[in-house]
Specification:
Length: 338
């Protein structure tokens, strides 16, 4: 997996409001390789969805705008791409599954009309050919009676069925990159498992790269090869799924994993990270997690930590990885100072 499909370099996406400039995405850098599933995790409000919308150039303008950085898709910087070029890319080379399919599907048009339009927008095929392919795609994602469902309106389908339709639409033109923004939110656990199996099969059979945005670490463990942890608009830790879940480095990542229920303990009080995600603002000084961190010291409130490079390609935005300051043990209980 050495071919880079998507590379973000120091991406900055800001919103310009009556209250001032808001840096929703503040210097995000990450890569997604061909055939790889990368999970982007973090609490609500940490910039995950805005990052994905930035890639698709779907950030509403006004009030939002990409103010810096690069979005390189196969060596083409999409920050400078025209609207005409982005229309060629969206749904064809990069597809996106949105969090709530009911707001993504047009309630006034039948499922088949919307799928046929998407296919014919990018490929020169007849309406009948596009319809036949749409039916095959609906069958592929496990929708029964696909030849009948294609003539239904979105409101006639359940949430799980609508999400399957969205996945079918996203795969219609065999995109090289699929961005899934919390595709299993609001679905029951049985449907969640089916959707994840479907995405995994599409990834293996089509070698499609997937950028999966979620706050569910169970989903990450199930499907992702690599994990990027975001907090307050920044990447704070990155590594393989096994490394992140087994031996997290950043105190925030440790807190996320510690918050998971332990099936081996019958009686337990669930842990929660104290405090809340800070509101993004310009000119913030210091580590953004410091007010909530049990290991914070003076430097954390006075300087912005760099993204320290660790072993095996891992990285973590924490001063405890600075050899002049000290380090965390594997379970986060001990600090060794200089």
């Amino acid at each position: 997996m050495s071919d880079i499909v998507l590379e973000l370099k120091d991406l900055h996406t800001h919103f310009f409001t009556d209250s001032g400039e808001v840096p929703a995405v503040d210097g995000v850098s990450l890569t997604v390789n061909k055939g790889e599933v990368v999970g982007i995790v973090g609490e609500s409000g940490c910039g995950k969805s805005v990052t994905s919308l930035s890639v698709m150039q779907l950030v509403p303008n006004p009030p939002g705008r990409i103010v810096g950085g690069e979005i390189n898709f196969k060596d083409e910087n999409l920050v400078n791409a025209s609207n005409k070029r982005m229309k060629q890319i969206r749904g064809n080379e990069i597809a996106m599954i949105f969090q709530e399919p009911m707001t993504s599907l047009d309630p006034l048009f039948k499922i088949g009309n919307q799928m046929v339009e998407g296919i014919r927008l990018h490929e020169k095929v007849s309406k009948q050919e596009a319809r036949n392919r749409s039916i095959e795609l609906l069958k592929l994602v496990g929708i029964p009676r696909a030849d009948e469902v294609i003539d239904d309106y979105p409101h006639q389908l359940s949430g799980g069925m609508r999400q399957r339709v969205m996945i079918a639409m996203s795969m219609a033109c065999n995109p090289e990159l699929l961005i899934a923004d919390e595709p299993t939110t609001a679905l029951d656990v049985t449907i969640q498992a089916q959707i994840l199996d479907l995405m995994r099969n599409l990834n293996k059979e089509k070698d499609t790269a997937i950028m999966l945005i979620t706050h569910d670490l169970g989903v990450v463990a199930e499907i992702c090869d690599r994990v990027v942890v975001m907090y307050a608009g920044q990447v704070i830790e990155e590594g393989t799924t096994r490394e992140i879940l087994k031996a997290p480095n950043h105190p925030y990542t440790k807190g996320l994993i510690r918050s998971l229920p332990n099936m081996k303990q019958k009686e337990q009080k669930l842990y929660s990270i104290p405090g809340t995600v800070p509101k993004p603002k310009m000119g913030r000084i210091g580590c953004r997690f410091a007010p909530r961190c049990e290991f914070a010291f003076d430097r954390c409130f006075q300087e912005d930590p760099a993204l320290y490079q660790l072993e095996n390609g891992r990285s973590s935005r924490c001063f405890l990885n600075d050899k002049t300051e000290g380090s965390l043990t594997g379970n986060g209980e001990t600090i060794v100072g200089n």
